[in-house]
Amino acid sequence: MPHMPQGLNLTLIRHAPVQGDSRIYGRRDLAADLAGSAQALARLRDRLPDPGRLLTSPARRCRETAVALWPDLQADPLAEAVEQDFGTWEGLAYADMPDLGVLDRAQLAAHQPPEGESFAMLCARVAAGLAPLTGPVTLVAHAGTVRAALALALGSVPAGLAFEVVPLSVTRISFLAGGEGVVQEVNTCA
């Protein structure tokens, strides 16, 4: 398991829905559908406390979501928080995805799409980005990033794949001084 952050109170927010095209978008830099999400953004903004240090994935949809939630705050990019790289699968219609057969969570976490990265690799990258952070931090990122943080908190990469993470949902995790993760809230919508 990668090195765990310590003394970090992390609030993760999955970006608003994308202006998508029914294709795998992982690293594709699509815009957020902010107009279609206006009511949900308003409810979420009213529910959230001060974000502390505000970070985002460098992806456009994450930056736009952060600005919609906190227009007066400057968010810093966290390069390690970018979505999983699906390699040659990026841009494929979901119906055209290859059939991987029956995989358990450990096998799925280790599976690496052609020219992409596995979920286990994503977890290692997210851990490296979170490791130096302390105090209250809010990160606007992707479903994969949220699942990776949950995997770190649980101490099991495959366990992170058990979670559904919907757009504009909140997940809160505290990483204690010893690196142990305490999951306080998962996939809560306003």
Describe this structure in words.
By secondary structure, the chain is an alpha/beta fold. The chain has one domain: Rossmann fold. It contains five helices and six strands. A six-stranded mixed beta sheet has the order 3-2-4-1-5-6. It is globular, with a radius of gyration of 16 Å. The model has no long low-confidence stretch (mean pLDDT 93). InterPro entries: His_Pase_superF_clade-1, His_PPase_superfam. This is Alpha-ribazole phosphatase.
CATH architecture: 3-Layer(aba) Sandwich
Return the string of H and E elements: EHEHEHHEHEE
**What CATH first level would be assigned?**
Alpha Beta
Low-confidence stretches: none
Q: Quick one: CATH superfamily?
A: Phosphoglycerate mutase-like
CATH T-level topology: Rossmann fold
Measured as a percent range, the helix fraction is 25-40%
How would you characterize the largest beta sheet?
6 strands, mixed
Question: Based on helices, strands and strand pairing, what is the structural class?
Answer: alpha/beta
Q: Could you give the order of strands across the largest sheet?
A: 3-2-4-1-5-6
Beta-strand percent range? 15-25%
- Tally of separate domains: 1
Pfam family, one: His_Phos_1
Protein name: Alpha-ribazole phosphatase
Organism: Salipiger marinus
